[in-house]
Amino acid sequence: MTDRTLDLDDFSDLIERPHGALRRDAEERRARTGLPPEALGRLDELGEWLTAAQGRLPVRPLRQPRLVVFAGDHGVASLDVSSRPAGTAHALVRETLDGVSPAAILARRLEVPVRVVDMGLDCDPSQFPDEVSRHRVRRSSGRLDIEDTLTAEEAEAAFRAGMAVADEEADAGTDLVVLGDLSVGGTTAAGTLIAALCGTDASVVTGRGGAEIDDLTWMRKCAAIRDGLRRARPVLGDQLELLAAVAGADLTAMTGFLLQSAVRRTPVVLDGVVSAACALVAQRVAFRAPDWWVAGHAGSEPAQAKALDRMALDPLLEQRVEVGGGTGALLALPLVQAAAELAAELPVREDEAAEEKDDGEADGGGDGTAGSPAVDAT
């Protein structure tokens, strides 16, 4: 990939940590509410995280969250490593668009708009509206155990597509992204990435998925990850080559999305093992990027636990949700929203409220996004 035009090293310079000084100010403000320390548990921590991410005190309640779901099929699914037949992720997308999937039902209940991005479904793109398929890079992906899942050009295109989606969401005023995925074979790709980046064996990261695959299927999945690792380890020094080798278009786009969201100062709630794998790759690109994410929930996939531990992200919930599509992360969304509301509206002692108002005006009361640098996704 010596001829590519995308330099991932730029992200290390462009991604800044959330406003640390404001986080400390949020802690002090919380102490002036009169509530006992730690009385609100992790809600205090979340409120301080959002304060730092938004760059304003008091924090602004979340009014425009959005569920963004990246979708694709994986060639490795032809090895029967999943409970679902290869090439059927389009059915999962259709359920989401029709509003009958678990994630769609929760999103409707929480009044969260849903955006599905087809990056590599194994179907005719005309099956879905143009806004779903306009970023598609290819139909399905290569088999990660024997070949690259993407060409160099496709990997860059997918990565840039993810960046473009992040820019579109930031420009539209999305103040929190709930990130999900829909795929068949995606957890095999995710397990391969996590094993490669964590330096562990295939058996350590191979889970049984949402439908509890049987022992023979588990062994096939483990063998596929083992073979994928042989192809991933030689390219660990170049994250875009790594993504091309074993990730597929959807995971590559999610990685670009996470990094550009951090550039645009958009906080993200991660879902399951697939988003955790993409986050781990993104961390290798820019070590400050995980400061912009929170882990929504802990599933049963061992690879997810390994990735979150490596990034020091502590899941908000532990419900062992495995259906994907952002379902587990949506369950955590009310906690994040509650943290924002409490941090914004809990009254402080009146004798210090005026001083706080003056400090806020001195800061400009901004949301931290004006003038933010951005990598050009085009």
Which descriptors apply to this entry?
378 residues, alpha/beta
What does this 3D model show about the protein?
- By secondary structure, the chain is of the alpha/beta class.
- It is built from 16 helices and five strands.
- The chain has helices spanning 10-14, 20-31, 42-54, 89-97, 102-110, 130-133, 152-171, 186-198, 202-205, 215-232, 239-246, 248-263, 273-285, 302-311, 327-345, 350-363, and strands at 65-73, 114-120, 176-184, 268-270, 293-295.
- Strands 2-1-3-4-5 form a five-stranded parallel beta sheet, with helices on both faces.
- Strand 4 (268-270), helix 13 and strand 5 form a beta-alpha-beta unit.
- The protein is globular and about 65 Å long.
- The two termini are 18 Å apart.
- Residues 364-374 have low confidence and may be disordered.
